[in-house]
Amino acid sequence: MSRRRVVITGMGCITPLGHSVPEYWDNLMAGASGISRTELFDARTFPSTFSAQVKGFDLQQHIGPVGLHETAGRNTRFGLAAAKQAWEQSGLHRFEQLDPRRVGVYLGAGEGSLDFQIFVDSIVATWQPELRQIDTVRWAKIALETMDAMREHEQGPHMPSAHIAAQFNARGPNFNCLTACAASTQATGEATMIIRRGDADVMITGGCHSMIHPFGVTGFNRLTALSTRNDSPQTASRPFDATRDGFVLGEGGSMVILEELEHARARGAEILAEVIGYGSTADSYRITDIDPQGAGGALAMEFAIRDAGIAKSEVHYICAHGTSTTENDRTETMAVKSCFGELAPKIPVTSPKSMLGHLIAAAGVTELIACVMAIRTGTIPPTKNLNHPDPECDLDYVPNTPRKADVRVAVNNSFGFGGQNDTVILRRFEG
Amino acid sequence: MTDSRRVVITGLGPVSPFAVGAAAYRDGLYGGAVGIHRIANFDPAGFPSQIGGEIAPDQFAVRDYVPKSYRKATKVMARDIELAVGAADLAVRDSGLTTLGVEGTGERVPADRMSTNIGAGLICADLNELAEAVCSVVDENGQFSINRWGSEGMQRLTPLWLLKYLPNMLSCHVSIIHGSKGPSNAITCAEASSLLSIGEAVRIIARDNADVALAGGAENKMHPMGLMRECLLGHLTTTHNDDPAAGCRPFDRDSDGTVIAEAGGCVVLEELSHATARSARIYAEVAGCGFTFSPYRMADPEPHGAGVADAIAAALADARMTPDDLDLIVPQALGVPVQDLAEARGLATGLGARASQIPTWPITPHLGNSGAALGAMNMIAAAMAIHAGRIPGAVKCPNPDPQYGLRISGEPIESKFRAALLTGYTIAGQNAAVILKSVGQVD
């Protein structure tokens, strides 16, 4: 028995580069930047004062009355709007025979955010400096009066997948994985496995996340992971460039509809691409550092290629994790070389994060959408802001301008803190 | 099809408020131990509910569960991570396997044939650690200054602060300690996390992406934010502050809410022939899994338990079983009456008349609701029951309410349990069912 094939029939996104796939793609092609001074809170004195924000977004404009989603957090709202776009593109909203028990959701969504002011006020009012402790008796009284039950509940990382399942009546398997910056690529891979195995015919998959809040930026700034090029936000994200100094924190949500091939064919759906391979590994090295040889990333690509049953020479494009941190871009380059050997210099490797910023849990699937578009348009999005070659980063990164290329197979890499590595491989659908 | 590879449980690692380690956990369950007390981690007097399942400091210290060379890394572990690391160590030792971190019998499991799937909750930053930094930038009017936070306050936090609280760090630390380089995942679906994680790990082995998996979940709700969140939702009992041990009483007439806890639960999953080749002790086989969603409200389970019933149907189909093949139920059993009712209705729909005949064994009265660990704590108990062929009398459910229609026995039951059903759910709508079967039934 041959295995069930999984195809993409819908895509949607809310990103710093646009609130739909066409807008996002046009901006990638134009070399635009989604990065600017942080407006979501007063970040003037933070080490990093800029970020890649979603601007002018209103959920109601996307889904109409928000109803059940009144209490949804910012991450969930991005996800709902992206899922709506994907769902409509797939045509499943018009497919009356759809069995809701055969439709699942697998997200790699991030946690929601707390109400910063209420939280800070509660601890400032109850801190006992001499004891170096909160007075929890008084804190409880204040928190009971000021904190909102649903605001707290909606922070759960499983809430976006619940909201989306409720919105689209998806009664099948429902998961959220939060494997840091690899989360939504992992979700896409695992959702593919669920359809392959026969546990669902349709999966809504992707991710949504926003960490552009005071404690989020604090966390990344303390790790010295963020670019501090405050005088030039739009050129700050410069993956593979010798002068790179960190990533640019972004936010957003992107979703794709995965569907079993025969299910999609039977209803005459337009097939955007096929998901042919998935690999997941752990570095098992150190919590604070990437394996210095990029071994975990290389193994994820190996596993995905083996799963896809393709030759390495068939890979035409690698959409890199490419964060613009010193460590990632060097080790990812080594991982690509280690996996592809002498083929490596011939494969275009680019990083949309140069324009998009780093959407954390939502990054992988947003970049997967770029892979689908590269396959469909025959154009590879460039790595922007790459002007100073780094001797340790010596692959073909397609600097600054898009390139025409016949992309039949695209590899999407996502790596996360703690040594999470995930690779998903797409192929042009040719029947 | 590679998906026909069978998966068995060969190691159990519980870290719970009443017992740490498989033997102590079994003795505690069968001896009626309860780990629920008045909260000692902080003064709970201002909270409506003041009890919980805490693990006493003399019962568990993470440094005892990591190789010496890894002790420094315990500084970047939130409590949730510590619990996962402890549970994984205990599970590996119980299985007899050799990993990078544990010297068992036989050769080390190859790194790329091992997987780690540990479910996690919403990990909370240590409130006092954060408060000290926040309160260092309060201005003369007693107001927090965001600008001074950005320029100086945040510097008081350790540079690795964020890494303590990322939910994938449970799996990541475990993968580093045990040298596991295969698929690694972190399912974050509240109380359903463990069953979903174990289900995912079973699939990973079944599809030949690994031979051994460390799977389960861990969560610490025993901090002011954890308690506050549950208080705000109104899910906790407020009538047992003077009688903590009787606080969690699912399906009981006198239940008025649940109790929060901390715990870590890990099982070693192993491909059947891999386990038999090394003559491993096999507790049970994971025979089937079913995962569903039931749309309703965002913080209340669908009242008819339709999603639980769907999950049971899917798990039975996956296991190629009917309700007649089951003879033990270990439900989520939180003790929140509206949730217990929905779960019981789901069991009734999913199992028909068998729902009221099969013994139901709630585990939560022993330790409370440990969130992402809950399903693993239940599964460890179910695997022990199948292996031992008996369950103790249910504790703290002296008056099972007939409206739930479940058979909860106050007396021990000796039986050659062929198969056990575990159920789990989140109040947002995720549902899980997993069926374990006796290896006596392996054909």
Explain the overall architecture.
The complex is a heterodimer of chains A (431) and B (443). With 431 residues, chain A is of the alpha/beta class. Chain A has 2 domains: 6-113 and 155-427, Peroxisomal Thiolase, Chain A, domain 1; 116-153, no CATH class. Chain A is 33% helix and 18% strand. In chain A, the strands form 4 sheets. In chain A, strands 7-4-8-9-1-10-16-15-11-12 form a 10-stranded mixed beta sheet, with helices on both faces. Chain A has a two-stranded antiparallel ribbon with strand order 2-3. In chain A, strand 15 (409-416) and strand 16 (420-427) form a beta hairpin. In chain A, helix 4 packs antiparallel against helix 5 and helix 8 (183-197) packs across helix 14. The radius of gyration of chain A is 21 Å and the shape is globular. Chain B is α/β, with parallel strands linked by helices. In chain B, strands 1, 2, 3, 4, 5, 6, 7, 8, 9, 12 and 13 form an 11-stranded mixed beta sheet that branches. Chain B has a two-stranded antiparallel ribbon with strand order 10-11. In chain B, strand 12 and strand 13 (430-437) form a beta hairpin. The mean pLDDT of chain B is 96. The chains are: A alpha/beta (431), B alpha/beta (443).
Summary, kept brief:
Chain A has 431 residues and is an alpha/beta fold.
- For the CA atoms, what is the radius of gyration of chain A? 21 Å
Biggest chain-to-chain interface with counts: A-B, 94 and 96 residues
Structural class of chain A: alpha/beta
Average residue-wise pLDDT of chain B: 96
Please compute the radius of gyration of chain B using only Cα atoms. 21 Å
- Structurally, the number of domains of chain A stands at 2
Which fold name is given in CATH as the topology of the largest domain in chain B? Peroxisomal Thiolase, Chain A, domain 1
The total beta strand count of chain A reads: 16
- How much is the average pLDDT of chain A? 98
The end-to-end span of chain A amounts to: 18 Å
- Which spans of chain A of ≥5 residues are poorly predicted at pLDDT below 50? none
